[in-house]
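Here we describe the complex-level prediction in full. Unlike the single-chain runs in Section 2.1, the two entities below were treated as one system.
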Amino acid sequence: MLQLKKLVKTYRTGDQALKMIDLEVPDGQVLALIGPSGAGKSTMIRCINRLVEPSSGEVWLDETELTRLGAGALRRARRKMGMIFQEYALVERLTVMENVLSGRLGYVGFWRSLARRYPQKDVDEAFRLLDRVGLLHMADKRADELSGGQRQRIGICRALIQDPKLLLVDEPTASLDPKTSRQIMRLICELCAERGLAAIINIHDVALAQMFVSRVVGLRFGEIVFDGGPTELSPDKLTEIYGEEDWEATIETVEDETEEAAPVAAVAP
Amino acid sequence: MSGVGTGTGELEALLGRRWRKPAFIKRPALRWALALGFVVYLIAAVLTIPVDWARVYDGLDRGMAFIGAFAHPDFVSRGSDIGEGLLESIVITVAASVVGIAISIPIGLGAARNIAPLPVYLLCRAIIAISRALQEIIVAILLVAIFGFGPLAGFLTLSFATIGFLSKLLAEDIEAMDRVQAEAVRATGARWSQWINYGVQPQVIPRLVGLSMYRVDINFRESAILGLVGAGGIGATLNTAFDRYEYDTAAAILILIIGIVMGLEYLSGLIRTRVQ
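The structure predicted for the assembly as a whole is:
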């Protein structure tokens, strides 16, 4: 279980990115975090694994309070939090396999990782994950030879090989085409269900979020202004999160798309 | 649906007007004054350089003799001196490059603001600033005074110069790297050394290899110059040849230096395309 208690982030410029965020994410729950650009979504998930240092408040992952951990303990805690990025964030000049295995860096020593001599069970797990996302044949390709959707699958493998309890997912589909976006979202949600992982998914695409997740949290100016099921998002709620706009179209498409989703999946290779 | 800005008259005022890129210096008076001032200064500066035309006329003969020597370079009569000098230069180049590059890498890491803490950053930047401020010849003269004539002074000079050059450019490359790739490695729980090895190193290695090759090239050329102040190498042989007015031998040495530099240039090009 992940708990955020009165989490505040004030940047040095004085911008209050997060204002007293309280949030509980039970084990196994996949949550979509929506909100306009600059609402603090990215800051929030980075405050959880402390790629951004929170200004005050607490973050609890099970029995551990993360904000006060020292360097070594923080590294051990980060192993339990896999992260997936908007621009995939693969190390482009490393091979696919090196990128996947880099998810084990928190578990192996420096010299082993330097020589790329990972324990056999890590290597086996890397191959299993690559097979699961359908990219086993790409193992020795360099990461920059892959397409966007393929790279994001490798990013997912890297996060999962950490054996995490929680996935922090930052705009996984923002650089992908609509069809690949759905496939990636479906893959993330399936893998979370298979492994009983909790996930926080930052996402711009409200309709896509509604298709796949069981809970939606809306963020505006660093505050939670909506927390509920995907069907509870009405035009009024969206106006509250994003500001005045004609929302009927967005919500209608959602309903269209859910019906349409099956044939699209059937066409997919 | 009507557009946003209609009815203000702002658009009407602009239509039909010529458009030019705004000037870098806005005030026309200042702009013209600076341009004119520069031209006047340039003319004045050139006029103050004294030229002794009679001396130039005398020197033309010597110049022609030197250039003419390239038509019949003499590799043989001072052959063993040239061989020794060249070998010494190559030893200086290789040793100074290896040592210099090895020291440059940690200093380059320390001098990158995005990965080093402030005190380390300032220390490494200070080392780089000192190394870059002291020109090779000046360092060589100082080191020759300390260690005496010979290749040791040349080796130390070039190692020192390599640090200033390579650390600075490496640090700048690290500062310009893609932050997100490195962030992703950090998010896995990697320790600092692993983070450098997986997140930073792959991003900067092609440029590091390219710059190192370029520095080997520079070190060889410099080693030829440093001989002129007594720091060993082919430069010492070249200096002796000039002192004795043996232009044929000097031409032979210069041809060898040019050949080796071009060879290194070609080699570094090959290596750079391979590591991309």
